[in-house]
Task: inverse folding
């Protein structure tokens, strides 16, 4: 049977800077059956310059902000908030994780989580990668906006800093919210897997709907990350490209069904099929009256259901033999 996919319900910044909303997102993720709920942790003053511009999707989906600094400051939670959220996740029996966006927050999070997710924006931030690697914990590395050369450099940096390849899962991603279907390039997940033997692969999805992450699981993704929100109509950069709680439940359920459906890979009759073999398959039967001692030929034999007699796979073997009894049309040859 296929291994269980690690499903990350990406709350991200969809709490809008409100810890009560963050807890409600945890409730929704736990109820949906996700393995992990993930946030993002930063200190705005350490992350972005005061004049840094916003992405177009951020401009379209937010209000009353004109710079990244203003937007991020309005979404920022305190370290104390994250300690409270970690405890809340523990009580809800769901794994807490948050993506750090600068080194101070990474150091803080090291006390709260057993693995690290590195966002696509930090893939080329080699000093940051080295800092995360120093914690010697499993790493989920997202690769939106990158090429294989940049991924290789990031991997080499992690390995040089003490991370072994089996500790890394690389997520294919397209950093656009929402991602157009023609830009998903899901086959790149296989390209990554082939380029870096031994690494695990997964998919971080920003498309609308749930079909692409399900397809990624069918292709071998070991981790799926998907944004979700309580209400897509909220103001905020990621709400519109997120799943609502019902859709999140549907995605988790579909992935779990797919895991079961993938099976063992051994081609053999299933348990439920066995009872249908004699009903659906055919046997060699008489097509006209045959007398004992008469030769069995294509002229007096045919193939019909049920499959309880000599199978037609033995057709050549039976032709030319002698009937050992009288047969009426439709009677199984014995």
Result:
């Amino acid at each position: 049977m296929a291994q269980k996919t690690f499903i990350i319900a990406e709350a991200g910044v969809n709490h809008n800077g409100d810890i009560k909303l963050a807890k409600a997102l945890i409730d929704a993720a736990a109820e949906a059956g996700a393995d992990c709920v993930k946030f993002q942790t930063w200190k705005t003053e350490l992350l972005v310059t005061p004049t840094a511009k916003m992405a177009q999707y951020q401009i379209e989906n937010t209000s009353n902000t004109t710079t990244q600094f203003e937007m991020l400051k309005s979404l920022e939670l305190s370290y104390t908030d994250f300690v409270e959220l970690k405890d809340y996740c523990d009580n809800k029996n769901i794994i807490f994780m948050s993506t750090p966006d600068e080194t101070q927050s990474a150091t803080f999070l090291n006390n709260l989580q057993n693995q690290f997710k590195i966002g696509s924006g930090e893939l080329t931030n080699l000093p940051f990668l080295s800092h995360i690697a120093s914690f010697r914990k499993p790493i989920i590395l997202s690769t939106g906006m990158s090429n294989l050369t940049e991924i290789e450099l990031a991997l080499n940096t992690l390995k040089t800093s003490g991370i072994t390849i089996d500790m890394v899962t690389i997520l294919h991603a397209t950093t656009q919210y929402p991602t157009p279907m023609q830009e998903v390039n899901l086959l790149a997940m296989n390209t990554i897997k082939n380029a870096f033997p031994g690494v695990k692969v997964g998919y971080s999805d920003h498309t609308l709907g749930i079909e692409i992450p399900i397809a990624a699981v069918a292709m071998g993704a070991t981790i799926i990350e998907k944004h979700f929100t309580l209400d897509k109509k909220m103001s905020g950069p990621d709400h519109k490209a997120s799943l609502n709680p019902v859709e999140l439940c549907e995605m988790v359920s579909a992935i779990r069904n797919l895991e079961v459906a993938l099976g063992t890979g051994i081609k053999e009759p299933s348990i439920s099929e066995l009872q249908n073999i004699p009903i659906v398959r055919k046997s060699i039967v008489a097509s006209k009256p045959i007398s004992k001692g008469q030769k069995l030929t294509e002229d007096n034999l045919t193939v019909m259901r049920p499959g309880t007699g000599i199978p037609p796979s033995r057709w050549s073997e039976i032709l030319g033999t002698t009937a050992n009894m009288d047969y009426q049309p439709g009677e199984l040859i014995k």
Notes: The mean pLDDT is 96. The beta strands are 6-12, 36-41, 95-100, 116-118, 139-142, 168-173, 200-205, 223-227, 283-286, 301-304. The CA atoms of residues 283 and 313 lie 9 Å apart. The chain is about 35% helix and 15% strand.
